[in-house]
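Deliverable D4.2, example record:
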Amino acid sequence: MARKKIALIGGGQIGGILALLVAQRELGDAIVVDIPEKEGLAKGKTLDIFEATPLMGVDTNLSGTSNYQDIKGSDVIIVTAGVPRKPGMTREDLLDVNIKTMTNVAQNVKKYCPNAFCVILTNPLDAMVYSFKKITGFPKNRVVGMAGVLDTGRYRSFIAMELGVSVEDVAGTVLGGHGPTMVPLPRLTTVGGIPLTELMPKEKIDAVVERTRQAGTEIVKLLANGSAYFSPAVAAIDMAESYLKDKKRILACAAYLEGEYGINGYYIGVPVIIGSGGVEKVLELKLTNEEQAMLMNSLEAVKKAVAETKL
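Output generated by the structure prediction step:
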């Protein structure tokens, strides 16, 4: 059986780690695409990883390019291209720069990979995945945003850290836009099957929720020169792997809603099933009035960002 082909658009920090993870998990062959000025970086990183494949005991081909024709026939596209926010930049500034990049990427993906499953990571996430879908015209099941998997991972890690338990036993989900308005759901969070609310006082839970909302900013401040890259890469690979292996995992992703949760025509984070059909189903939770209000508040932030794309 022919190996799957995974195109990674953007050869920055996340792009390089994505290529390593594709190799480590033997998901297929990876091609990293970057702008002509950075083609050497894409080629250098992929060659470096390929030279480690005998040591990892994996078979995969890795290559770097600046020519979009090379992505032809890719099964999965993961888009990380765009600039991270720098000190003094507003989100609007970031949107203006990254919408140009996203337009170019979307047009090329539409041209060369009309049947690919597309995972978008570029920020501001909810507006960028919306833009990609609008420009490509791809069906909603094949265009999804990576946010909830990462936000949920952060949330679970902070709970495990606070309780001093294994991260494996913490289950939870985070809804909403990717940013400070996201909606972690402590009511539905369990630790080894025990409700979180029985293990942690409310003020502790509130602090974990707030830390989850600010998790990306916390890392930006610590790094002082860029944003998170290890955890976003792992989150995106989990989504791609569920598609490639038809795992039917339930993952919180930015999905295009058409009436679910009372939301229509926008991408926002909700639990979905990802299998070989892409986003096969949106799972609609029964939210409390307070949770629904928080989700609607998050939607307002998403609407504002989407309006700025002028698409």
